[in-house]
Specification:
Blueprint (H helix, E strand, L loop, with lengths): L2 E9 L3 E5 L6 E4 L4 E9 L6 H11 L3 E2 L1 E6 L5 E6 L2 E6 L2 E5 L9 H9 L1 E6 L5 H6 L10 H5 L3 E2 L8 E2 L4 E12 L8 E12 L12 H4 L2 E3 L5 E3 L13
């Protein structure tokens, strides 16, 4: 295992000390001593894959959850959450999720390969417990809608049903499937084009902005932890002329 510790130096910024009474300009304390920041440097090729995964999922947080409903070629419905999930394109709108490798493969991956369709449902805090119930490794013939008690609703364009209790549903046609790695802790990226949005009326305004407080999503952290999206702040992007 190749792990090294490095001390990186950053010089402390100058601090304001009030204003000069004669000139009215701000007085500043000179830049101070170097601040030492300790870093642990790790070569992922020298550590076990589960440890690299642990570092990755502990650092990349919070992660949105894609609650993916799909259907097999035989018509068996599946519902499963994925925290390797995100929006990746605006025109046309696209999302991606990444099932990790399993033996046998996850039902969701088999389904989207066979039918080229899925629905990405957003998980609000109100259905977090039901979402968690669907995360078990159930047999292929098990319908997770029934396990969780969530309600399947017919989609407009695709065959997989939507989750009625989810505040936002995105019907998707598979655009591309990419096997990133065939190793045990590897995964396959599924990219889908959104062909229909379904947004709960009470959470979106006339200008098509979604209220995050009313959406009330939960996100994935490291280990068994989840988070709420409550504490936010705004920053204006600089305009470069």
């Amino acid at each position: 295992m190749e792990v090294s510790r490095v001390n990186a130096g950053l010089r402390a910024p100058a601090r304001k000390l009030g204003r000069n009474k004669e000139t009215g300009t701000a007085k500043r304390k000179p830049r101070g001593a170097c601040v030492i920041i300790n870093k642990v440097t790790i070569d992922p090729k020298t550590i076990p894959a589960p440890i690299a995964y642990q570092i990755l999922t502990g650092a990349v947080i919070p992660r949105p959850i894609g609650f993916i409903s799909s259907i097999s070629a035989a018509g068996i419905v599946n519902l499963a959450p994925f925290s390797f999930f995100n929006a990746i394109c605006g025109e046309p709108p696209m999302v991606m999720f990444c099932p990790m490798n399993r033996r046998p493969p996850k039902d969701t991956l088999l389904n989207v390969k066979a039918t080229r369709e899925f629905v990405a449902n957003i998980v609000s805090e109100e259905i977090a417990q039901q979402m968690n119930l669907t995360s078990g490794d159930y047999a292929s013939e098990i319908n997770e809608f029934e396990v969780s008690g969530l309600t399947p609703v017919a989609s407009d364009v695709v065959k997989p049903p939507r989750v009625l209790e989810s505040p936002v549903n995105m019907e998707c046609i598979v655009h591309h499937i990419i096997e990133v790695s065939d190793k045990p802790w590897g995964g396959t990226v599924v990219i889908g084009e959104v062909v229909r949005f379904h947004v709960r009326d009470g959470i979106i305004d006339k200008d098509m902005f979604i209220d995050p407080d009313k959406l009330n999503p939960v996100a994935r952290m490291g280990g068994p932890s989840y988070s709420r999206i409550k504490d936010r702040f705004d920053m204006i992007r600089p305009v470069i002329k």
